[in-house]
Amino acid sequence: MKSPERIVIASRVSRLALWQAEHVRARLAQLYPACHVEILGMTTRGDEILDRSLAKIGGKGLFVKELENALEDGRADIAVHSAKDVPMDLPAGFALAAFLPREDPRDALVSPGYARLADLPPGAVVGTSSLRREAQLRGRFPALEIRPLRGNLDTRLAKLDRGEYAAIVLAVAGLKRLGLGSRIRAILEPEESLPAVGQGALAVECRDGRPALVAALAPLHDEATAACVRAERAVSRALGGSCTVPLAAHATLANGVVALRGLVASPDGTRIARGEVHGDAAAPERAGEALAAALRAQGADEILASLR
Q1: Cα angle at 183 between 182 and 187, to 5 degrees?
Q2: For position 229, what pLDDT does the model report?
Q3: What's the pLDDT band for 284 if we cut at 50, 70, 90?
Q4: pLDDT tens digits, residue range 73-109?
Q5: Which of 85, 89, 119, 154 is catalytic?
Q6: Looking at the domain assignment, is residue 227 inside a domain?
Q7: Nearest to 31, CA basis, from 219, 223, 222
Q8: Which domain holds residue 34?
Q9: How far apart are CA 77 and CA 72, in angstroms?
Q10: Model pTM?
């Protein structure tokens, strides 16, 4: 295909977000050596407000809106997001054009003093930014003290190193991408901490009505990752999920079949609805909708109603 002349990538300016944007920039530069690819760094509302939880200030969409504004007014052509930060329903005129191959989607325990969650003594302070992680931690370890943890990855690690927390729980993917894999004390299997929708995957967003740009992005797209993330996003969409809801969904793909697990929990972890379904990878949203129905049969609607 004809090489694009110029592509501008909108990105948040955190170290991890810029790594992600640079990763996409490098891939595009490799594909289209004659194309000038540049990164437009932006600070979002989600980056600016660090003294309150995301659930209380409007959710993860705060990490996306300013980037979408740059797409809308032509300052940028594409935006690179962590897929877990992308709201379930995009504004009219926007599309997710590509999902890159997924990094490890699991959660990680990071701690200077403890190798396992089970080793933490009663009252030990564990930090997390996620209601999903908090609910699962409280459900398994009610004696731990769970405290909010905001800020970029480096800020969170610095708070741990200052002794403000005995341990923190972060995404494996972010640690690996920034060369911080050595900080991981334990990887939490999905049975211990079911990942967030889209965790570990990168999504590339653009405006509708740009077929040449979408075609240029096609070589970046990984269909297996897309099938899994689309299934997970369908669960969340069907249940009205956002970061104000302790909801998890994790899909794997084998032999054309999506295996999808999910849960909805009360923030204190005392009520958890769990489910698992299998579906056709060619129609992953159907698996997501089926799992949402299974979670409703386990009491998800009652749990969600109690959060409103």
Answers
A1: 90
A2: 98
A3: very high
A4: 999 999 999 999 899 999 999 999 999 999 999 999 9
A5: 85
A6: no
A7: 219
A8: 6-100+201-221
A9: 9
A10: 0.92
CA 65, 134, 262, 256 torsion-angle sign: positive
Q: Return the number of other C-beta atoms located less than 10 Å from residue 180's C-beta.
A: 17
Tens-place pLDDT, residues 2-34: 789 999 999 999 999 999 999 999 999 999 999
Question: The tokens of 55 are what?
Answer: 């659930």
Q: Is 85 a catalytic residue?
A: yes
- Cβ count within 10 A of residue 257: 13
Q: Helix axis angle, 223-238 relative to 284-297, nearest 10°?
A: 30
Residue type, 100: L
CATH of residue 296's domain is 3.30.160.40
pLDDT, residue 46, reads: 53
Q: Give the list of residues 6+ apart from residue 278 with CB closer than 8 angstroms, or none.
A: 257, 258, 259, 260, 287
Cα 195 from Cα 252, distance rounded (Å):
12
Contact 169, 137 (CB under 8 A): yes
Report whether 111 contacts 167 (CB < 8 A): yes
- Which tokens go with 57? 């200030």
Is the same domain home to 11 and 87?
A: yes
The letter for the amino acid at 137 is: L
135 shares a domain with 269:
no
